[in-house]
Amino acid sequence: MLNGDQPCISRKGVFQARSAALQAWQQPRPTIVLTVLLLISLGGCAKKEATAPPPPPEVVVAEVQTRDVPVFGEWVATLNGPVNSDITPKVQGYLLSQNYDNGTLVRKGQLLFQIDPRTFEAALEQAKAEVGRADSNLTKANNDVIRDTPLAAQSAIPQKQLDDDKANQVWATQELAAKKAAQKDAELNLGWTKVYSPVDGLAGVAKSQVGDLVGTTTKMTTISEVNPIWAYFNISETQYLSAAPQISRALTNGTQVKSHLPVEFIQANDVPYPAQGRIIFVNREVAAGTGTIQLAAAFPNKDAILRPGGFGRVRVQTGTTKNAMLIPQPAVIEVQSQYQVMVVGPENKATIRPVKVGDRVGQNWIITEGLKPGERVVVEGMQRVQTVAAQSPDSAKEGVPVTVKPFEGATGGSD
Question: 263-291: buried (b, 16+ CB within 10 Å) or exposed (e) per residue?
C-alpha cells in the first residue's frame, strides 16, 4: 500500500477506509497501525490529482496601419439668414387680414397683410379733386395771359393787368404741381395698406392679429432668407493669420472673399448636412475679449431644412498628416486621461503599453507616440487578458500568452 506505484483508490474507497479505521480504533494495536498507514497512503494519492491549466485567452488583433490622413478643424456655428427683414407697415390703420401661413416659405412680392384702406381711399379721392381744381385754375390763368397780351401791347388795358395775369399763371402752375404731389402721396399711402414680402424667405409667426391697430413702429413679423443659409463661427487669430494672405489678395482685387475649400456642417443631432458649403464672409475685426474673428459659410438650403437660430458645428480640412499611424478606436484604453494599448508581440504575448493619441479619423484613432507600423494591438478580448494577468502577476510582467484572431471590421461588442 505504501508503494508509490500503487494505484489510487477512489473516493468511495477512501470513505470505506475511514469507516474501517473508526471501527478498528477499539481493536488491538496492530490493526490500528495498519489502518493509519492505509489513510496516509490514500492522502498522498489525493495530492497527486492535479487540474489542467486553462488555455490562453483568445483575442482579436489589428496591425498598426500608416497612411496620409486629412486633418480637420471643428468649430461651433450658429445659423442665420443673410437677410432678416423686419416687416413694419408704412401707414397706420386697423389690420384686416393676414394673407400667409405662419412659418411658411414666401416669395418676394407676395401679399402678407392687408390694412383697412377706406381712410386712404377717401384721402386719395380728395387729392384727385384738389388736382382737378388746380388744373382748372391753371387753365384760366393761361387763358387770361393769352387774351391780355395783345391788348396790353395796344395799350387797351394797363400793363399791370397783364403782369397780374402772368403772376396768377405761375401760381396756378405751382399749385397744380403741389396738388399732384399730394395725390401721389395719397396713392402711396393707399398702396401701403397692402404689405408685401421684400425678399424670398421663411416667414415667422405674425405678431399682429386681425383687428389690431398697427403703425410705423409695429413689428408685424420677420422674413429670413434661408437659401442659402449662413453658418457663423469664430476661429482664433492664429488660425486666421494662416489664411490671411489669401483673404488680403481677394480684398485687394475687389472680389468677394470666397474659399474653394469645402465646408461640412454637422447638425445638432450629429448627422452631417448632405450639402457642402463655402466660406463667403470674414468679419472686419478681431474680437478684443476673445481673440477670435468671425467667419461665415453659406450652405444651399432649398427645402429650408436648416433654420435661423439653429446650432451645429462646421468642419473644415486644415491640413494633412503624412504617414499617420492608425489603429481601431476600441483598441485604445483611457485611464485618468492617460491612454494605453495592449500590444501582442511576435511570441503571441500581450503587454500593456502607454501611447499618445491624436485626432479620431472615422473608426480609427491616430497614434502619435508609443507604437510602430506593423505592430499588433488587441481590439477585442482585453478583459480576458486582464483577468489572467490579475491571477498571475508574473505573467503580466513577461506578457500574457494569447491566441490571436485577425481583426476584420468594426468591433462587435464589449467583453
Answer: bbbbeeeeeebeeebebbebeeeeeeeee
